[in-house]
């Protein structure tokens, strides 16, 4: 029904913003990422919206980018994930970062979002793993391809497991290892992975 709202930002809170357009103030629930990006009160802004209709309420959700809106829609398509949980996840992880976490099977990173447990995070990974590539753009899409290329039982997966055991996140390890030549030995992958991950710190 509502695709986007362009107008003046009149209020900005930790979990919602108000955009005035045509004399009407639209309250949009949103993520911390959008709150940080959107600007300050008085600025002209554009938000991409989603209207969630329930029996007892109609809530408007708004995001600074189409990528964030697309991931919001993907998340609420997962059984047991409502709009509030989706916003909590997008407050914790940017769309590109979330895509890499899903592609690499890093459910642990998703559980850092408020109110999201391990079972829900695992369901998100399971249901969205084949869909994230379609909504990821720019540099993030290459990271998703790299992370998704790590297959179970391969040298790559062993190297990722070793790097995770050394304290790196599964998503970071999968991106680095996934971009390597698959013919390398596990030890070579670990050594190169440690070098590349050290540069990121």
Structural class: alpha+beta
Name the helicity range.
40-55%
Q: Which strand order spans the largest sheet, edge to edge or round the barrel? A: 3-2-1-4-5
Please give the alpha-carbon distance between the first and last residues: 44 Å
Q: Can you count the helices?
A: 11
Say how many strands there are. Answer: 5
Shape verdict: elongated
Which regions contain 5 or more consecutive residues with pLDDT less than 50?
none
Strand-and-helix sequence, N→C? Answer: EEEHEEHHHHHHHHHH
Gyration radius, in Å: 19 Å
How can the largest sheet be summarized?
A: 5 strands, antiparallel
Q: Approximately how much beta-strand content do the residues carry?
A: 15-25%
Overall mean pLDDT stands at 89
Structure description:
By secondary structure, the chain is α+β, with helices and mostly antiparallel strands. Helix content is 51%, strand content 18%. The chain has 11 helices and 5 strands, in the order βββαββαααααααααα. The protein has helices at 32-38, 66-76, 83-92, 95-104, 107-110, 118-128, 132-135, 139-148, 155-165, 170-178, 186-200; strands at residues 4-12, 16-21, 24-29, 44-53, 58-63. The protein has a 5-stranded antiparallel beta sheet with strand order 3-2-1-4-5, sandwiched between helices. Helix 4 (95-104) crosses helix 10 (170-178). The longest helix is centred in the C-terminal third of the chain and has 15 residues, at 186-200. It starts with a strand and ends with a helix.
């Amino acid at each position: 029904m509502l695709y986007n709202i362009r107008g003046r930002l009149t209020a900005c809170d930790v979990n919602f913003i108000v955009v005035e357009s045509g004399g009407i103030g639209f309250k949009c629930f949103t993520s911390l990422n959008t709150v940080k990006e959107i600007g300050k009160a008085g600025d002209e802004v554009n938000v991409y919206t989603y209207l969630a209709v329930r029996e007892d309420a109609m809530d408007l959700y708004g995001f600074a980018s189409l990528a964030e809106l697309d991931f919001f829609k993907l998340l609420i398509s997962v059984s047991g994930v409502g709009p509030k949980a989706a916003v909590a996840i997008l407050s914790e992880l940017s769309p590109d970062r979330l895509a890499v976490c899903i592609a690499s099977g890093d459910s642990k990173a998703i559980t850092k979002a408020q109110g999201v447990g391990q079972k829900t995070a695992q369901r998100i990974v399971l249901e969205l793993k084949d869909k994230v590539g379609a909504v990821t753009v720019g540099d993030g899409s290459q990271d998703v391809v790299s992370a998704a290329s790590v297959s179970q039982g391969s040298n790559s997966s062993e190297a990722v497991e070793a790097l995770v055991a050394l304290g790196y996140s599964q998503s970071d390890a999968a991106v680095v290892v996934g971009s390597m030549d698959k013919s390398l030995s596990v030890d070579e992958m670990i050594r190169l992975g440690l070098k590349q991950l050290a540069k990121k710190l």
